[in-house]
Amino acid sequence: WFGLPGEQSLTLTDDAKEALTKKLYRYDCVPVFVDQEQFNGHYNQVCKQIIWKAFHYQLPEYPKSANKEQQWWNDYKEVNEKFAEVIVKHYKPGDIIWVNDYHLMFLPKILRKLIPNAAIGFFLHIPFPSSEIVRCIYAREQILEGLLGADLVGFQTYSFMRHFISTVSRLLGYEATPNGIQLENSVVSVGIFPIGIDIDAINEKRRDKKVIDIEKNLLEKYAGMKLIIGRDKNDYVKGVRHKLASFEKFLKTYPEWIGKVVLIQVALSTVEQNELECQVSNLVARINSRFGSLGYTPVVYLQQDIPYEQYLALLTVN
To answer: How far are the Cα atoms of 234, 238, 245, 283, 289 from residue 242, in angstroms, in the given order?
Structure first.
């Protein structure tokens, strides 16, 4: 496994990086280190403010500075090149390289140039939008060319795969078939590989004593009530604000449910602006003020993540 060891690693000394690298090697993990500026441009800007939003059909309401955006994409490219540099050092003939998600969409092409005969796969965990959306992205051609460096590009659903094929055909002019993209000297295959969950492992974890104890406490606290559970990143894509607004409208429309239903919303931190957090917090306060009482709080809002055991307990009592 190759990956960034977290934002905390940005300030590590060379000795600390070396020590961390040795420790991670024991678990077959290889860290890739970048500097603060590269991390900000790559992750905070390109990944979260551009790709994440655009691939979920949310384009910026105003144009960004061309110079700034170009620098951010340079940072994105440099981080992808850092990954390639580290991977090449550890690559052995016969290895299969599996690249994951929108953070590394330039990487397959970079690796293809460095290791021409390598078996490279890429899987996109998020949606791939229509060509009309991709056209609006500054580095659209680099993204597509980067992905075409892989032998196989995988998606969650048929529609995401179809969008990719049609976008490559329309923007780059390559011949597309239902099974892949015809390049000059090769074919890039595409496929659908929907991700699931390990139900047996989750059910086993739900039988843990900690989970059972938390579940009992929740059942006692909210006895006779319906629970609506949400655990989402508090960004514009996930729609926490819309969920709360819908819950407010529900209580207005069906007042007989007041005192009988509780929305428990866990909101994970993001790099979004504080404006959205303020909007959500104000909406929570408004709902609780209007419909709540001394013995009833309609919305339980947690601006933090919760332990996995608590999350499983919430899902169990839901």
So the answer is: 11, 9, 5, 10, 18
